[in-house]
Specification:
Layout: H1 3-10, H2 19-32, H3 36-48, H4 68-71, H5 83-86, H6 88-94, H7 100-114, E1 122-124, H8 156-166, H9 170-177, E2 184-185, E3 194-195, H10 206-213, E4 217-218, E5 227-228, E6 235-236, H11 238-245, H12 247-258, H13 260-276, E7 283-285
Antiparallel strand pairs: 1-7, 2-3, 4-5, 5-6
Helix pairs in contact: 2-7, 3-7, 3-13, 9-12, 10-12, 11-12, 12-13
The chain binds 20-OXO-protoporphyrin IX containing ZN(II) (ZEM).
Length: about 290
Amino acid sequence: FTPAAHAWRLLPLSGGVDYKAVAGDISSIIKEDPNKGPTLVRLSWHSSGTYDKMSKDGGSGGGTIRFKEELAHGGNAGLGETAVPWMEDVKTKYGDSLSYADLYTLAGVVAIKELGGPTVPWSSGRVDALDPSAVTPDGRLPGADSGPPGADPSDAAHLRTIFNRMGFNDQEIVALSGAHALGRCHTTASGYDGPWTPTPTMFNNLYFSLLDSVKWTQRDWKGPFQYEDEGKSLMMLPTDLVLIQDDDFKKYVSMYAKDQATFFADFSKAFNKLEELGTTGLKSTTWA
Ligand code: ZEM
């Protein structure tokens, strides 16, 4: 035993990043403009949602969503002009010791908590891919329009195909979809328009209660097929309505509409799983 060896053991791992400090910096960005929170949740989800359990590629692990090749994927419209550049100052501050992959996934859980949601467990240790060769092919994220124009949009099979590929079951699909309590659709990004709830900067179970109770009708407009409420202030995507058109999905919608605590618990588990798909060697990290 030597004092030097002892001191070495006290050094933090992972290049010594203080993840609580990183989380604090992300929180400050959201406090300054709460509308950035939902877009950061979308960034973290899209960075993770490329995973394929058969080929075992994709997922958040390489931080590949920062590459223009991946940002060019249809589902990522808007993120290259918003959430990705918003994180750049934080990345610069911590340098090489903080990976983009850890930063983007941490931003998701910080935003969820900052906007009133659960403290989702998070682990550090993702190692960035150095070049875009790890970018997966376009088409792995769900499309909001699950059928051709004019067709019956209630195609539950599309959602199951996409999410089963990542390893999620019906209950997890519905729980994860509750993130649409947050944020809105932007005509400048996806082409869809409007928020799902009247409180888009609050993480709660309102998405489920609105889905379950409001009379949703097709919006008459020049944009893509979407639904609106009678007051014309809220929206639902065709894929959102699928969750009440399919009985196996609907039972979870009704459950989460009645029970926010169960929604928070199930969402936490599913979102943590989402952010760790395809990763290896992560270390459970206290960030809050
Ligand atoms: Zn979303 N999502 N999503 N989503 N999403 C949008 C926005 C947001 C689908 C989808 O097509 C869209 C999940 C699942 C699915 C968030 C989180 C999560 C938008 C609007 C679309 C079109 C983008 C825009 O125009 O800015 C579809 C089809 C899904 C399949 C089920 C899951 C899972 C999520 C997280 C767990 C969030 C927070 C937003 C709001 C973004 C913002 O900028 O306000």
